[in-house]
Design a protein that fits this description.
The protein has helices spanning 11-29, 34-63, 71-85, 88-96. By secondary structure, the protein is mostly helical. It has a domain at 37-97.
Length: 97
């Protein structure tokens, strides 16, 4: 048995993303300098990719042998690539919407 029960959803990653969202909101609303906003944006990006990776691993274990051809898995992989390719200005602009 595992010391902690396995989860079917990435709650810890969702909570981390929520925390990073609040930090980024505070940084943007506080009108900090660009250098000060850079760090929360990077943390927000890392939390987003971390959440997507957690969903990827959960989906991979659920689907098993269908893993390489699954549209859900392909969507998650494309999401990871998209978040890694976004610039800081794009992330801030999307966040402000």
């Amino acid at each position: 048995m595992y010391p902690n029960a396995r989860r079917n959803e990435p709650r810890r990653k969702e909570n981390l993303l929520l925390k990073r969202t609040l930090e980024l909101t505070h940084a943007i609303q506080g009108k900090f300098l660009t250098e000060k906003i850079q760090r929360p944006v990077e943390k927000y990006r890392a939390a987003q990719t971390s959440l997507i990776k957690a969903k990827f691993h959960l989906q991979k274990t659920v689907e098993g042998y269908q893993y390489p051809n699954s549209p859900k898995i392909n969507k998650l992989v494309n999401g990871i690539i998209a978040w890694n390719d976004k610039t800081l200005d794009q992330i801030i602009a999307e966040f402000m919407e």
